[in-house]
């Protein structure tokens, strides 16, 4: 994900993978098969993600429980919006993007815009 380091992205993947909030230990256990990390490392990453606004936390006994501040899809849409906002020629960027989408993606976009294929909606 844009704006995240490799370990931060891995931690966010864990948080996005479940609707439940996670303790530091939960995240550590999920990452253990791929990475050998210290508890304090994961705690620091989650604290940094909280400070950056990527996660929310609430106290549960003596430990925090963490959950994403936004879904992966919302974050991805914001990143696309940021890229468009940074462009000097939004129309050209959108046209290049539109030419790159699959038929399924094109249908999703048309449905979202309330249009039928090939202008069949009468507009």
UniProtKB/TrEMBL annotation:
Keyword DNA-binding annotated: yes
Domain of life assignment: Bacteria
Pfam family of the protein (one): Penicillinase_R
Key words, A-Z: DNA-binding, Transcription, Transcription regulation
Bilayer-spanning residue ranges: none
Similarity remark: Belongs to the BlaI transcriptional regulatory family.
Identification of the protein by name: BlaI/MecI/CopY family transcriptional regulator
Lineage: Bacteria, Bacillati, Actinomycetota, Actinomycetes, Pseudonocardiales
